[in-house]
Specification:
The protein is α+β, with helices and mostly antiparallel strands and 117 residues long. The chain has one domain: Sandwich (Hypothetical Protein Aq_1857, Chain: A), CATH 2.60.300.12. Helices cover 18% and strands 40% of the residues. Strands 4-5-2-3-9-8 form a 6-stranded mixed β-sheet. It has a 3-stranded mixed β-sheet with strand order 1-6-7. The longest helix has 14 residues. The model has no long low-confidence stretch (mean pLDDT 86).
């Protein structure tokens, strides 16, 4: 028996609030196959930034996270920065938006759209 331990990354989560809002947006679009694509790109004031888009296709390397009938998709490169994260939806004085609570981020910008690892 070897002393090596296997590593299983923590999954990502889509909160009920985010799933409800996503469901409403998909219904407005009239395409029940749409999913929320969450991705990470270089840039922003902290080094990386989050992005959101609709996707109606899923790549071979994509990970699908579901909550009820709502689904989000994350590409393999972005997933490594988002492991263990929670995607939520909030409404407040700053407006309504999807947000990411990322335990891997060592710092974030004031608006929460960019982060550093």
């Amino acid at each position: 028996m070897s002393g090596a331990e296997s590593f299983v990354p923590a999954p990502m989560y889509l909160t009920d609030a985010a799933a409800q809002r996503l469901g409403a947006l998909v219904e407005e679009e009239g395409n029940p196959g749409l999913k929320l694509r969450v991705y990470v790109t270089g840039g922003g004031c902290s080094g990386f930034q989050y992005g959101f888009d609709f996707a109606d296709t899923v790549g071979d390397e994509d990970t699908i996270i579901e909550n009820g009938t709502a689904s989000m998709v994350v590409d393999a490169l972005s997933y490594q920065y988002l492991v263990g994260s929670t995607v939520d939806f909030e409404e407040g004085l700053a407006g309504a938006r999807f947000i990411i609570k990322n335990p891997n981020a060592t710092s974030t910008c004031g608006c929460g759209a960019s982060f550093a690892v």
